[in-house]
Design brief:
mainly alpha, 11 helices, globular, single chain
């Protein structure tokens, strides 16, 4: 039996069926865009910005919420719930970093540096996924300004999550759980929609980013729900020495997984918006293949006077 025969059969089957060809196109587009490498870069900066950001968060909470230790704890917990099981370990380390104003100042500098690096890496990822020509991408100054704005927005969403957690805690049982999950999903979808629209130079509307935002928002909520089981089983049973390494590896892996999910939503938006399906798995290129390849080549335009034209042999 020829090895390529099953692949050709799957290819013929998926092309006229959007329920299958769209997911396959998203997976192929994800690889074509190098989204995995882009996610690794974002995760790198996100990992190094986490502790300084939490240090600044706890310090500011102590200043603005002086005397309200309950609200300070709730604000920090709302941020740490994004890291199931690992959040308890992170809380202990953040607590050990609290101290002098010098420590807070150093933490702020590191947080801003790493946070800006992560958001600028996200800008590059979004422009790459949307095939924005390099000559149209923002300058360094504009990129940094937008990154500052997104840091502020991120802080606002953390505070909103704390308020939502407080409202959910008022109700007990299934009602409180349902309120907490519903508000969490809405906040996550809204944040991803805003990020998808703001972090790219491409002119995109709310409608064009909605599908990916819904996918990423719901996916992140589900990831938080199952993350305690996936991560907890590995760390809770570890020895103290192994657990220290497991926390670092687990945290970095968790951030990388969440970043991949966010970029997957962005890729879904591009596939649906550009009608980049069905993609060929074997044999002759489809129209979607040609459009995708043409867009990828045209984004390499680096100068205003440079124009990239793509042709195919059968054209």
């Amino acid at each position: 039996m020829e090895l390529a025969a099953p692949l050709r059969a799957v290819d013929r089957f998926q092309r006229p069926r959007p329920w299958l060809s769209v997911p396959l196109a998203v997976v192929k587009r994800f690889g074509d865009s190098g989204a995995g490498t882009l996610a690794a870069t974002i995760a790198y900066y996100g990992f190094f910005s986490l502790f300084p950001l939490l240090l600044v968060l706890t310090s500011l909470a102590g200043f603005f919420l002086r005397g309200r230790t309950d609200l300070q704890t709730q604000l920090l917990d709302s941020a740490l719930t994004q890291f199931p099981v690992l959040g308890d370990q992170i809380r202990e380390n953040v607590g050990s970093l609290e101290g002098s104003g010098l420590a807070v100042g150093v933490g702020l500098v590191l947080a801003v540096w790493a946070g800006l690096g992560g958001i600028r890496a996200a800008q590059t990822a979004m422009d790459t996924i949307w095939d924005v020509p390099r000559k149209r991408r923002p300058s360094t100054v504009a990129s940094i300004g937008l990154a500052f704005l997104m840091l502020i927005v991120l802080g606002a969403f953390v505070i909103a999550a704390a308020v939502a957690a407080g409202l959910a805690s008022v109700s007990s049982g299934l009602v409180g759980g349902a309120i907490g999950i519903s508000v969490s999903v809405v906040l996550n979808v809204a944040f991803f929609a805003l990020a998808y629209r703001v972090l790219t130079t491409a002119e995109v509307s709310w409608r064009r980013v909605a599908p990916g935002a819904v996918l990423a928002g719901i996916g992140w909520t589900v990831l938080l729900a199952v993350g305690g089981v996936l991560v907890g089983d590995r760390i809770a049973s570890s020895s103290d020495v192994y657990g220290t390494f497991a926390i670092v590896i687990g945290l970095l892996g968790w951030i990388y997984l969440g970043t991949q999910l966010a970029l997957l939503g962005a890729v879904l938006n591009v596939v649906l918006d550009g009608h980049l399906w069905p993609r060929s798995l074997q044999g002759e290129l489809t129209g979607a293949d040609r459009r995708a390849l043409r867009r990828s080549a045209e984004q390499e335009e680096r100068r205003p006077e440079e124009l990239v034209d793509v042709t195919f042999e059968r054209d």
